[in-house]
Design a protein that fits this description.
CATH superfamily of the largest domain: P-loop containing nucleotide triphosphate hydrolases
Helix content: 10-25%
CATH topology of the largest domain: Rossmann fold
Organism: Cognatiyoonia koreensis
Strand content: 35-45%
CATH class of the largest domain: Alpha Beta
Protein name: Carbohydrate ABC transporter ATP-binding protein, CUT1 family
Number of helices: 8
Mean pLDDT: 89
Largest sheet: 6 strands, mixed
CATH architecture of the largest domain: 3-Layer(aba) Sandwich
Shape: globular
Low-confidence stretches: none
Number of strands: 20
Radius of gyration: 24 Å
Strand order of the largest sheet: 6-7-8-3-9-10
InterPro entries: AAA+_ATPase, ABC_transporter-like_ATP-bd, ABC_transporter-like_CS, ABC_transpr_MalK-like, ABC_transpr_MalK/UgpC-like, Mo/tungstate-bd_C_term_dom, NA-bd_OB-fold, OB_MalK-like
Structural class: alpha+beta
Number of domains: 2
Pfam families: ABC_tran, OB_MalK
Keywords: ATP-binding, Nucleotide-binding, Transport
């Protein structure tokens, strides 16, 4: 598969402050890739570099094989959707969709064709004669997406387009974006700090921190095989449980806890070393399933959060705070002691010093 966007050794500094550091990224043709990370990690900065809105300090950017490092945004073959709708309030939806095309001297029949197609895809045909002030937030964001869509470009860039919407509307538009990508098969680069958006939308996720990509992989790889402690902690809600201890001859020990780490090959690793074991709350079993678990413990419940489909339990396992995701109908309460089961093959093991996955 050919690459749609290639980023080579990209640096960006504002004075003495390095924002992006020797960053490399290949995005395949037709791929939906999500740049994910907390505020200040460089994800929107990287998107703006691809768009040509920021001048890079060093490195190169290629789109469809063309070096666009110093090209104007209008020459890059991209369409961009921002967090703010940025619609012209005095124009109708039709006017907003067609404005850029008129400036580009596109023939009128072609403009009408593209506007009609975008309106049909985004289901905003009844809104074409309304002005933005008469639209809901979700409708305005559809128009903003449509304005990028009519440009008929190869690469779409989305900078947190759903951040200003309420929770239900975000879910609805997320589904529509996924459907839109399945229909168009264009390359889409999407920035968000919301891991649920990343996991549900992406073909691959680039988890960023401090101007670097900490891990690039499919949602399944990012979730089940985090490359380091940062990715493991960032992905998942609630986040992964971590227990610090020592690995001694294939057995993880932390206080009174002892876990034989079956299913791992430590032959290439030093036998005795300080490590951190990570266990996702949903990989902890309770009730009747405990009897079949390779490792069984008792945990003391501190707090219970009923969430409808799930019940989140905060407990103590040995010296550590421990989160357990139980069935929504689970009948547990604070102060109780429950039996829990853990399968070491579903755990992640990290080196304490390097924080890298073992």
């Amino acid at each position: 598969m050919t690459n749609s966007v290639e980023i080579r050794n990209l640096d960006l500094s504002f004075g003495a402050v390095e924002v992006l550091r020797n960053l490399n990224l290949d995005i395949q043709d037709g791929e939906f890739i999500v740049l994910l990370g907390s505020s200040g990690c460089g994800k929107s900065t990287l998107l703006n570099c691809i768009a040509g809105l920021l001048e890079v300090t060093a490195g190169q950017i290629f789109i469809k094989g063309q070096n666009v490092t110093w090209a104007e945004p209008s020459e890059r073959g991209i369409g961009m959707v921002f967090q703010s709708y940025a619609l012209y309030p005095q124009m109708t939806v039709r006017g907003n969709l067609s404005f850029g095309l008129k400036n580009a001297k596109i023939p009128k029949p072609e403009i009408e064709k593209r506007v009609a197609r975008a309106a049909e895809i985004l289901q905003i045909e009844p809104l074409l004669n309304r002005k933005p002030g008469a639209l809901s937030g979700g409708q305005r964001q559809r128009v903003a997406i449509g304005r990028a869509l009519v440009r008929d470009v190869d690469v779409f860039l989305f900078d947190e387009p759903l951040s200003n919407l309420d929770a239900k509307l975000r879910v609805d538009l997320r589904v529509e974006l996924k459907r839109l990508h399945n229909q168009l098969q264009n390359t889409m680069i999407y920035v968000t700090h919301d891991q649920v958006e990343a996991m549900t939308l992406a073909d691959r996720i680039a988890v960023m921190k401090g101007g670097n990509i900490m891990q690039l992989g499919t949602p399944d790889e990012i979730y089940n095989q985090p490359r380091n402690l940062y990715v493991a902690d960032f992905i998942g809600s609630p986040s992964m449980n971590f227990i610090s201890g020592n690995l001694e001859s294939g057995v993880f020990k932390s206080g009174d806890l002892a876990m034989p780490m079956t299913g791992y090959d430590f032959m290439s690793q030093p036998v005795d070393r300080p490590v951190v074991i990570g266990i996702r709350p949903e990989h902890v079993v309770t009730g009747e399933l405990v009897a079949n678990a390779p490792l069984q413990f008792e945990a003391n419940i501190d707090l219970v959060e009923p969430m409808g489909s799930d019940t989140l339990v905060y407990a103590q396992l040995g010296p550590e705070n421990f989160r357990i995701r139980m069935d929504g109908q689970a009948k547990v309460k604070a102060g109780e002691t429950i039996a829990i089961g853990i399968d070491p093959s579903r755990a992640s093991l990290f080196d304490t010093k390097s924080e890298a996955r073992l």
